[in-house]
């Protein structure tokens, strides 16, 4: 059993993150010891690692909460349920990639159109394009 500091270190997250996850119902402390401190065990550490792994993939906390519900009730769920969540996340990621590619192309166009000289910025093509909404 670990107190929150050791648990945070083992899970490689700040203690405030653990408190936040508890507040929103993603994580629960095993119990409180005689002194009233939260204590955590291996089950909570596995849950924290699960949350961290899903966050690293860009999953929202709502999606993680739904996946944790499936994780807890594995026998009653199906792989297709999990695949559906991951498929939704993949689609959102692909949309973000397309958006970043559009942003990159627009910014590259602005950059390439600018002379970058030492004249006053009153004639700056980047500022003019942004002001005109031509991005």
Give the topology:
Blueprint: E1 2-3, H1 4-11, H2 15-23, E2 31-32, E3 38-40, H3 42-56, H4 61-72, H5 79-113, H6 125-132
Antiparallel strand pairs: 1-3, 2-3
Q: Overall pLDDT, averaged? A: 90
CATH architecture of the largest domain: Orthogonal Bundle
Tell me the fraction of residues in β-strands, as a range: 5-15%
* Total of helices: 6
Topology pattern, helix = H, strand = E: EHHEEHHHH
What is the CATH topology assignment of the largest domain?
Answer: Multidrug-efflux Transporter Regulator, Chain: A, Domain 2
Helix content: 55-70%
What summary fits the major beta sheet?
3 strands, antiparallel
Sum this structure up briefly.
The chain folds into 2 domains: 1-77, Orthogonal Bundle (Multidrug-efflux Transporter Regulator, Chain: A, Domain 2); 79-135, Multidrug-efflux Transporter Regulator, Chain: A, Domain 2.
Structure, described:
- This protein has 135 residues and is mostly helical.
- It folds into two domains: 1-77, Orthogonal Bundle (Multidrug-efflux Transporter Regulator, Chain: A, Domain 2); 79-135, Multidrug-efflux Transporter Regulator, Chain: A, Domain 2 (Orthogonal Bundle).
- It has helices spanning 4-11, 15-23, 42-56, 61-72, 79-113, 125-132, and strands at 2-3, 31-32, 38-40.
- It has a three-stranded antiparallel beta sheet.
- β2 (31-32) and β3 (38-40) form a beta hairpin.
């Amino acid at each position: 059993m670990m107190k929150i500091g050791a648990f945070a270190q083992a899970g490689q997250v700040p203690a405030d993150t653990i408190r936040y996850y508890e507040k929103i119902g993603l994580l629960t402390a095993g119990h409180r010891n005689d002194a009233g401190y939260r204590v955590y065990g291996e089950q909570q550490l596995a849950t924290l690692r699960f949350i961290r792994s899903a966050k690293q993939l860009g999953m929202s906390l709502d999606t993680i909460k739904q996946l944790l519900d499936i994780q807890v009730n594995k026998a009653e769920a199906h792989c297709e349920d999990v695949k559906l969540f991951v498929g939704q996340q993949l689609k959102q990621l692909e949309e973000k990639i397309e958006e970043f590619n559009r942003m990159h192309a627009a910014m590259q166009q602005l950059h390439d159109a600018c002379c970058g000289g030492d004249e006053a910025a009153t004639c700056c093509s980047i500022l003019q394009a942004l002001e005109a909404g031509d991005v």
